[in-house]
């Protein structure tokens, strides 16, 4: 089983390890794109106003311009320490034994293992850096090369912007989270969905299971008390859909 996670907007602001070394990151096939994006992002952030506008940074996040400018020399920290949004709070990767079953999608790094060390940064998936294509288009071939070589079941907990880069087709299961009101109407509540995804990932990793099918994942989560609904792929180019429904 491989679990794909999104990054989080919430990040630690300071690392304490050595500076960035792309050669030590996992998935070396991604390094040419990583190198290009680091160069472009550092160049962009030489001008604070242009960078803030391109990266859609509010005044409270202008400090990320300086962080981006210092990417190559700033202290790093492990990805599981860097990302600290609600999904990662509920997941608690630091005390799980099977973190290497996880890959984290990233606009800047493509994919990261939890143990990969990178510096704090800010770049949304929607950003369009000068002299580059859209991030989804830029990452698509390299990420497809890395993930297309995997043969295990993929549990996809990423949000839509990252699914546009690469999808697991029918050997994967895409997890969606809905809130259901008393009338049976369903909606997506972003904070709750992120928290639930973190809890789902933690259950799968802590449970020590080795699912080989979407049905195995659905059965396990149902046994943990979640209300789940599993739908077959519409075509072989689409993943299974696993809906988690809460009141």
Specify the helix fraction band.
25-40%
Beta-strand percent range:
15-25%
Strand runs, count: 10
Q: Biggest sheet: strands, sense, closure?
A: 8 strands, mixed
Low-confidence sequence ranges: none
Number of helices: 9
Structural classification: alpha/beta
Instruction: Tell me the radius of gyration.
Output: 18 Å
GO biological process, one term: response to hydroperoxide
GO cellular component, one term: cytosol
Protein name: Peroxide stress protein YaaA
Pfam family, one: H2O2_YaaD
Comma- or semicolon-separated keywords:
two-stranded antiparallel ribbon; 10 strands; 9 helices; 34% helix; Peroxide stress protein YaaA; YaaA; 247 residues
Describe this structure in words.
The protein has 247 residues and is α/β, with parallel strands linked by helices. The protein has one domain. The chain is 34% helix and 17% strand. It contains nine helices and ten strands. It has helices at residues 31-44, 48-54, 63-69, 79-82, 86-91, 135-148, 160-163, 190-206, 214-223; strands spanning 2-5, 77-78, 102-106, 110-112, 117-118, 154-156, 172-180, 186-187, 227-231, 240-246. Strands 1, 3, 4, 6, 7, 8, 9 and 10 form an eight-stranded mixed sheet that branches. A hairpin with a 3-residue loop joins strand 3 and strand 4. It is globular, with a radius of gyration of 18 Å. The mean pLDDT is 95.
């Amino acid at each position: 089983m491989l679990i794909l996670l999104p990054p989080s907007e919430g990040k630690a602001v300071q690392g304490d390890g050595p500076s960035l070394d792309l050669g030590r990151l996992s998935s070396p096939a991604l390094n040419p794109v990583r190198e290009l994006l680091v160069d472009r992002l550092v160049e962009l952030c030489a001008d604070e106003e242009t960078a803030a506008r391109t990266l859609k940074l509010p005044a409270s996040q202008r400090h990320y311009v300086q962080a981006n400018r210092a990417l190559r020399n700033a202290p790093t920290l492990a990805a599981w320490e860097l990302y600290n949004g609600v999904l990662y709070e509920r997941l608690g990767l630091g005390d799980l034994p099977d973190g290497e079953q996880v890959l984290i999608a990233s606009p800047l790094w493509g994919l990261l293992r939890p143990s990969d060390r990178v510096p704090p940064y800010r770049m949304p998936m929607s950003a369009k850096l000068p002299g580059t294509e859209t991030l989804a288009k830029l990452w698509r071939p390299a990420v497809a090369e890395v993930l297309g070589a995997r043969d295990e079941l993929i549990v996809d907990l990423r949000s839509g912007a990252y699914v546009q880069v690469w999808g697991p087709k029918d050997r994967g299961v895409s997890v969606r989270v809905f809130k259901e009101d008393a009338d049976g109407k369903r909606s997506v509540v972003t904070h709750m969905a992120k928290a639930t995804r973190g809890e789902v990932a933690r259950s799968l990793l802590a449970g020590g299971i080795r699912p080989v099918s979407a049905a195995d994942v659905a059965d396990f989560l149902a046994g943990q008390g979640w209300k789940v609904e599993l739908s077959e792929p519409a075509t072989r180019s689409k993943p299974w859909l696993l809906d988690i429904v809460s009141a």
